[in-house]
Design goal:
257 residues; alpha/beta; five-stranded parallel beta sheet; two-stranded antiparallel ribbon; globular
Length: 257
């Protein structure tokens, strides 16, 4: 078994790591995991039959970068057994289910799904903001849930979070119907406060889409943002915003461990 993931603030990577450590407990070898941004991920998928795919839900939908990765490597998914972990700030309805349906189109067998609540990654909006203590507790509960799910998968009784029709309706009418345009295309809404930007280049290094570059010593966006919030969360001067107008609270997973 291998794990693959996409992660903006580290939530999905962390939960995948916890899941695989629990799944591998008592085994000699550790399951490897790869980000979808690594060139060697395709060869790893090709060589392994069982996969755990971890990703962050956006508006009850799959981030554009993940959608494109799946479609670009359509031939890789045939007959793969895939368990899906969907991380979210509150509720997605069918977070695991919608990614599962995408993969099924290319011949994958979906073995189950897990929904995990994690600290909110939308740094420039007040919605869902919690204290550091609350987020630490949230991460602890998420880790316990991931460990239970790993043991259940080992026992042949994996959870099926987000897989039923009720979940699908909840995801569609709860968010996708209203916000599908936000993730079906890359966003050009990323804003740079040039007065605050010091041209450190942190955002250009972190961006998975190469959407940011330095122009005359200031960060500039080119309109291919997948809304992962890496740049907004890590900007030392809080000079970047996407959905909101100012940064309210920055926080990657390391802050809550």
């Amino acid at each position: 078994m291998i794990g693959i993931y996409f992660s903006g603030t580290g939530n999905s990577k962390y939960i995948l790591d916890v899941f695989l450590r629990s799944y591998d407990q008592g085994k000699k070898a550790r399951s490897q995991f790869y980000t979808i941004e690594e060139p060697k991920v395709t060869e790893a998928i090709r060589k392994n039959e069982e996969i755990v795919f971890s990703y962050p839900v956006q508006f009850s939908n799959v981030p554009k970068i993940v959608q494109d990765f799946i479609a670009r490597h359509a031939k890789l998914w045939k007959r793969k057994k895939i368990f899906i972990i969907a991380t979210m700030g509150l509720f997605s309805g069918d977070g695991a289910g919608i990614l599962g349906r995408m993969l099924k189109k290319y011949g994958a067998n979906i073995t189950g799904g897990l929904h995990v609540k994690m600290p909110d990654s939308i740094a420039d909006e007040k919605i869902l903001k919690r204290t550091i203590t609350e987020n630490k507790m949230l991460v602890m509960r998420a880790a316990r849930k991931a460990k239970r799910a790993a043991k259940a998968l080992q026992a042949g009784l994996p959870p099926k979070d987000g897989m039923g029709w009720t979940c699908r309706f909840a995801g569609f009418f709860g968010q996708r119907l209203w916000f599908c345009q936000k993730v079906n295309h890359y966003s050009d809404k990323l804003k740079v406060d040039t007065a605050a930007c010091v041209g450190c280049g942190t955002c250009t290094i972190l961006c998975p889409m190469n959407n940011l570059k330095l122009v005359q010593g200031k960060a500039a966006a080119s309109g291919r943002c997948t809304m992962c919030y890496r740049c907004v969360q890590n900007c030392p001067k809080q000079a970047l915003t996407l959905l909101g107008k100012r940064v309210v609270q920055q926080g990657t997973i390391e802050k809550y461990l």
